[in-house]
Design brief:
Elements (H helix, E strand, L loop, with lengths): L1 E6 L4 H11 L2 E3 L14 E4 L5 H12 L4 E6 L5 H7 L6 E6 L9 E5 L1 E3 L3 E4 L6 H5 L1 E3 L7 E6 L4 E3 L5 E6 L8 H11 L4 E7 L6 E3 L11
Length: 217
Amino acid sequence: MLLYKYRDISGDGFINTQDIFVNQRLYLPELKSLNDPNESIAEIQINNPLKVYGNWLEERNRKTGTRIFSLSETHRSSLMWSHYAASHTGICIAFDFSGWKDTDSIVLKKVRYVDSPIKLPHNEMNNYVKFAAHKEVSWSYEKEWRFISQWDKFLSIDSNIIKVIFLGAKFDKTFLQWVEYWRDVYNPNVEIRQMNFVTCSYELFDDTELGDKTVRM
């Protein structure tokens, strides 16, 4: 199963992306630092006068140390290239997690998109995985999977997990030598492919898929 991470490689994004290749690890930011203010909202079901107290506990719970690393099922989302890869000037990394097995501290979950906050019985109030594995339905275009952990800041990966580095359709060529360096020194079997806009289409194609298609400048 290939999963994809869109990356800006300018500014701080350069340091954070380089860390993936050099140190062979993924950084899991805290849930509360992400760009969705509705992350992990849930209704704690308490059928007594303490319901309000239960909702306060829910707010406290989702703001604890839960960390995630987000991935997508697709590398062809123009919107995600725009949002997370600096308007197509960055890269998208393909990871093969087909052999992944959950551990006691980190699990991989497909995000469930919902119309309203999930409901949890009060005895599951500390189930951080259930809290973190759902999002509001308007985010469904991201087709997201998540590594979820309560406390782990990094997830170590083997070098052969990274399969392809896709360069954005407007990739900043001044960074190409760095991408090639990361590949040559740390992941020599990784492919580097260029994404392209083509005429008369909204779709993105990498350079192995172009055939007789005309690249749109």
